[in-house]
Amino acid sequence: MLRPYLVLLGIVFFCACSKPDNPTPTPPSPPINDSVPVKPPPSIDTAHWKMINTGINTVLLDIWFTDSLHGVLTGADSMLYRSVDGGQTWKPSINSKSDLQCLYFLNAKQGYAAGINNFAYTLDGGQTWTVKAISGTLIDTIRSAPYSFPWPNLQFVSGSNGYLTTGKGLYKTTDTGTTWTIVNTQPVHAMYFTSANTGYVYYPYNSCSKTIDGSQTWQPPVTLLAQPGADPAGVGLNPALNLLQFTDDLHGWYLDGFVVAGTTDGGQTWNTLHQFQSQGYADIQMLSNQLGYLCGKTIMKTTDGGTNWLTDLDLGGGYAGIHFMLDANHGWACGASGMVFKYGIQK
After folding, report:
1. Which helix (H) or strand (E) segment is 140 a member of?
2. How far apart are CA 57 and CA 65, in angstroms?
3. Partner of 66 at 20 to 30 A CA spacing, among 4, 206, 214, 223?
């Protein structure tokens, strides 16, 4: 693995929070332009993948679709963009640069975004956003330099209750981002909640802890890997490349860039499922206990719970730092050069 590629992997993209399905909640109470040269187009399997040039001249940081037509993405130009045609075209959905980087939607209408200095929420599927400044103790823990890590890691468990990681702790809001209270003072690099009460956090550099009471208390840490994963250029130490993902209270996955580990007993024990040697990956999403995807210089697919991975899309020198699979038939990935890659039966 060449260091320039790994530096790009570690600097440009953050791990977006995994994206679970949640029951419809109670409604909530009332970064920097960095254009990159266009790379040669990747090799596309036209039966399933289509490359879309969005016309947005910046690195794309996160993407989320609430159905097959309506989606939102964030860019390194500190803007939010919205599509109503399945990702074919994108228009700004916010009037000014607000430093919003990561996304989380609770349902088709309620969505959230967080960045170094600001938090925002929408009640209409991303058409309009209410932006709030992040202040006080929380802002002191989020690094302010462009592309420094860790990026915020965001998830909401109800309309007004959500969590945000900063790399120096886990913070909780109960008023839709107006105030944030620290609920874990460890250097949390990743988190995932399967319900309002049950959640998991990752501590560097090899352990996971669980709460069953909505972050009031945390169980003793459990070792994730018998040995740390392959780390040929130090990328595994990058907080943005540590990811947790669960499909239910028992089945979970951990990605450190190069190694995928899994649990089938709610995080009590973890086993290494697969170790990559030639490249690292920046995002993991499991649609079921068997079907899942990874993205990086290639998009990889598993149909056996993460033990074996096959190339679904080779980006041919490009890079996708984040992807979102709505279901087995609809998906999107984004990354450098303002490109979005759309998955489905192409016509």
Report:
1. helix 137-141
2. 21
3. 214
Residue showing tokens 């290639």:
298
b (16+ CB within 10 A) / e for 86-98: bbeebeebbeebb
Model-wide pTM > 0.85: no
The arithmetic mean of pLDDT across residues 111-130, rounded, is: 92
- pLDDT averaged over every residue in the chain: 81
Query: Which range has the worst mean pLDDT, 42-51, 237-246, 282-291?
Result: 42-51
Q: Edge-to-edge strands of the sheet including 80-83?
A: 60-65, 71-75, 80-83, 91-92
- pLDDT at position 265 is 97
Contact 245, 17 (CB under 8 A): no
286 pLDDT above the threshold of 80: yes
**What is residue 316's DSSP assignment?**
T
Q: What's the CA gap between 233 and 293, in Å, rounded?
A: 23
> What phi and psi values does residue 245 have, to the nearest 5 degrees?
-150, 135
- Yes or no: say if 325 and 331 are a contact pair by the CB < 8 Å rule: yes
How many beta carbons lie within 10 A of that of residue 64, not counting itself?
22
- Going from N- to C-terminal start, the domains of the chain cover 48-92+281-347, 134-275
* Element of type H or E holding 202: strand 199-203
Residue 179's Cβ-count burial label (10 Å; 0-12, 13-18, 19+) is middle
Please tell me the predicted confidence (pLDDT) of residue 136.
53
304 Cβ neighbours under 8 A, 6+ residues apart: 290
Q: What is the DSSP string of 159-181?
A: SS-EEEE-SS-EEEESSTTS--E
Q: Are 41 and 51 in contact (CB under 8 A)?
A: yes
Q: How many residues does the chain have?
A: 347
Look up residue 3 and give its two tokens: 């260091």
Distance CA 252, CA 246 (A): 4
Q: Could you tell me which CATH number the domain at 134-275 has?
A: 2.130.10.10
In sequence order, what are the residues at sequence separation of 6 or more whose Cβ sits closer than 8 angstroms to the Cβ of residue 125? 66, 70, 108, 109, 111
